[in-house]
Amino acid sequence: MLIELRIRDYAVIDTLALELEPGLNVLTGETGAGKSIVVGALSLLLGERATADVVRMSAPKAVVEGVFDIRGRPELLRRLEELGVEAPDGLLILKREVAAEGRNRAWVNASPATATVVGELGRALVDLHGQHEHQTLLHASEQRAILDAFADAGELAAAVAALHRELVRLRAERVEREHRHGQLLGRADTLRFQVGEIEGARPDPHEEVALEDEARRLQHSEELVRGATRVHEALYAGDDAIADRLADLQRVLEQLARVDPSLAEAAALLEGAYFSIKEVGVQVGDYASGLEHDPGRLEEIRHRQDLIFRLKRKYGPELMDVIETGRRLRHELDALDTADVELDALRRHIEDGQRRIEERAAALSAARRKAAQRLAAWVKRMLPELGMPGAAFEVALEPLPEIGAYGAESVEFRVAVNPGFEPRAVARVASGGELSRIMLVLKTILADVDRVPTLVFDEIDVGIGGRVALHVAEKLHEVATSHQVFVITHLPQLAARADHHLYVEKGEREGVAAATVAELAGEERVREIARMLGGDSESATSLEHARELLTSAGATRG
Questions:
Q1: Are 58 and 124 found together in one domain?
Q2: 484 and 25 in contact (C-beta within 8 Å)?
Q3: Distance between CA 476 and CA 125 in Å, rounded?
Q4: What pLDDT, in 10s, does the model give residues 488-508?
Q5: Strand partners, 101
Q6: Cα dihedral angle (143, 67, 95, 61), rounded to 10 degrees?
Q7: What CATH number is attached to the domain comprising 65?
Q8: What is d(CA 50, CA 153) in angstroms, rounded to the nearest whole number?
Q9: Cα end-to-end distance, the chain, whole Å
Q10: How many angstroms separate the CA atoms of 199 and 202, rounded?
Q11: Residue 303, Cβ neighbours under 10 Å: how many?
Q12: How is 254-275 classified by DSSP, letter by letter?
């Protein structure tokens, strides 16, 4: 529900704050006082394009804010959560700002947003019916939604939309997979060769260092054997080897340590040196005896190193890159082998999805056809009461070439406002006031299922009066039992039925035209109704007539 509408420096409005209530709210005033300007300002919160010419003379910017109570609207709270916006106490504040130099800005609960997002949220909360460009009834989506709501086919329509989204996704996946499969087929031979080349080499990420070490040993094997043998003999195996001499000296030092124990530590150190020298001598001897001069093995290593070099140059730069490339190419080759199976499974999913959407779309079409006849009959029966005698109304369902997100047919409301004419699309035939009255009929019919809480009507009273005006007032009051309704009107019959009466008046502030709004009650309201009746608002006759109208409408006197 719209709790408050704040307008600043918009057209002739200086500062204005409209506090709205549940039920039927009306805004009245002299012609040219600025009533429709309020609607224009409100349209900014519904996504209307903003231009700098709406900024009040000499003001830097125009600002429009709407405060909404969205408690009980979990889908809107979820949307705000997606936007990263909090809604304390269930309040939503939408704000648009239009600068004199043309720059526009928007906010949702003080968080910067786009005009598109503000409009999306605003349209979920307010239906505005007035000038043609504001009429939601002109939009095919709104007409379709009205018919589906009347048919109680919301779940069916949602199911068709979900199935269509899934089919679109599956078909896109099939196209992508077929394209990828075609590419793989075109390079299948190359893939097999590359995979065979890499996997046949069986590269090891650690072998390069090992190969280099082994090649160096084989290349210098004779030098290594000679040097190792010389060390082995000098330390351990030769005549007068260092290990033998250390053993003799170690025995002498042990004997001396028996005489002077202070030499025991030196004897122990010498013993350790002996065993270390002996161990080195043995190890180097084993090393020398194990070395072979093997030109054949060296040639093998050189061939292996050359193969690794070529693989790195082709698939590298490093050996690990070669291995990873091999894994990737193997995956592609395996995908080629399974692609046909996967494509067959995907085609079966698409066929199943097509069958299911056809079933649901057929059920939706049947529900729409049945509801279209009933809705047209209801609207046609109610239109004469609202000043459109002889008007014809029909809901046209045109088959589509294929089932889409919204079903198997388009929905179009058609009307003939004068007898003898073929019904045509409402956008091409009806005036703003006629459109508003048609929408009022539809809202009356759909009062229990319509989710938009606030309805705004401008121009609904154009060209009507007398008994028709009473019928319009009754319908608006009926709709206001389940919605918040805001009406800009010249009709006293309508104003008398209001639960909340606002009055706009144009004056002057600092030499510039300015509009103000006040809530009317009691005698002030009686005088305004008297003015709207066309009499002297101060005469006893006019005032009495106004009181009678208020009493017959059931309004509470202030």
A1: yes
A2: yes
A3: 18
A4: 888 898 899 999 999 988 777
A5: none
A6: 120
A7: 3.40.50.300
A8: 36
A9: 25
A10: 5
A11: 10
A12: HHHHHH-GGGHHHHHHHHHHHH
